[in-house]
Every structure is written in structure tokens, then in C-alpha cells.
Amino acid sequence: MDPLSSIGRIAASGMHAQGRRLQVVAENVANAESTGATPGSDPFRRKTIAFAERVDRATGASMVEVDRIGRDRSDFDLRHDPAHPAADADGYVKMPNVSAILEMSDMREAVRSYEANLGVYESARGMRRRLVDLLR
After folding, report:
1. What is the tally of structural domains in the chain?
2. Cα(53)–Cα(120) distance, rounded to whole angstroms?
3. Can you give the residue range of the structural domain that contains 109?
4. What separation, in Å, do the N-terminal and C-terminal C-alpha atoms of the chain show?
């Protein structure tokens, strides 16, 4: 496999991983107010994502892939709302451990990483196109 194809595949693996990261962030934001349904039940628990290096056997190139999607084990916030169906005997409702600031930070980082990989991919594609033009 030619080096330009390897570069494209590496960048594509990065874009795929960051796209998955954006999906996790979107799910966290969408469930930022998802409480339990019954008194004392746990609400939505923030998802986390971890990446791992994978070596492509065909090219020997280091790729990135999603290693696992886990759950943030930090404590839930409590909100006093005695009228809520998930309120405990004292009137407190467990709220998801999702922080909007943290999610927006993760989203910006994922978008920037995706854009960087896209730039590399487009550069490799442009170099391949110029090489073909030179060989004509």
C-alpha cells in the first residue's frame, strides 16, 4: 500500500473515533436532565469514551479506535423537588452527573481533532491527485 493511502487511512480512523466521541457527548447532553422514574432510583450516568492504538497489519501504521465506552462513577447531584416522581422521602431527586461545561469542552476538543484529521486526509488526497497529474 502506498504511503499516501496509509496517511488517509490513519486520518480516517481518527475522524471515525472523534465522530464516535461526538455521539457520546451528544447523548450525555441529551440526558442531562434524565432522572430516575421511581423514588430513590438512579438517573442517567454520564458516559465516557476511551481510545486505543491499533496497528494495521497490512501497512504497519498506527491507527486509533474506540477502546471502550464506560460510565462516569462520580456522585450524582441532589435537587430538592418534593413533587418529582423520583423524589426520595426527604424530597430530593438524584440528578445526572453530566456537566454542561465539561461536555462542551469535550465537544470542542473532538471537533478540533476531527478537523485536524480531515485536513490531513484532504492533504493526502491532494498529494495523490498531484502525483497522478505528474505521471500523465
Report:
1. 1
2. 18
3. 3-135
4. 21
